[in-house]
Amino acid sequence: MTKKPDFHIGLSIYCFIRSRCLLATILVFIGTISCNNITNSTSALKGKKIGVLLVNHGSRSESWRKTLLNLESSIRDTVLKIDSVHAITTAFMEYNEPSIATRLKEFDKQGFTDIIIVPVFLTVSPHSFDDIPTIIGQKNDPKSAELLKQEKIERYTPQARVHITPLLDFSDVLQKNVLRRVKSISKNALDEGLVMIAYGDETYTKEWNELLNTVGNYVSKETGITQYSFGWCGHIVHYNSDATMVAINKVLENKKDVIVIPVLVAVDEMFQIKIIGDGISKIKDHKNRVIYKPDAILPDKNIEHWAINVIAQQVYSITSK
What is the pTM of this model? Predict the structure, then answer.
């Protein structure tokens, strides 16, 4: 297993522990946000001007980008009610502007003291552990720096202090998300199997396998679906639809029907329609045996709550020092 950078391990463990030990505090904290501004001591908040940056991968798909911008819009009012938080915005890591560097420069020009980066990523990848920290100057990974240069992704070290929150897999949001989507299209759980198709990552295959096994086991216990499998649709399989076909056929060896769920953050036509759709079309009698809705993880109220929670926890950490 590839070793995770020390700074991110410390952050992840810290946030995990705080989420357990301060659960009651956070619940009260979030409840207060929904009604009134949070009142902290003047000494704790003095001099703090905090900005929130939701960071996602970026995509050439307009529908994909719109979905991520909608996430920002959905939580904006609640997040801005947190004292010391003066802005929330979105950045695309690649393909699109505004980039991470563009947003960090904007925060610096406006005199922000702290920036909370919320990576809207499912689980560990070089993007979360190498690229983002390298872009913002928290890490100098030679391989990542070279790739960023080749892809013309600007690096910028802000004057403000930057804090990175944990990823989605540090919560049970994904399990609940997939369960909800399975239930919405399931017809007869005893006859069905489940196939999850995710982007995947060749560097962290073990972690991706563990994540999808966790989700699959959770859905199985909650629905009675006794068999599941998963496959990839990203660069790990060279964007080939055959991986989807193989995962589906594996389940159909023992099940009458199969439910296919895209474990992707948002809808990108190349993935949900072209790659996964083409894989399904290769299945014999797929119109009768494959149950598929080309949707995505977002939109999801639980993810909105997750984002608000991790932001609130990070603000608490910043302002209580």
Answer: 0.84
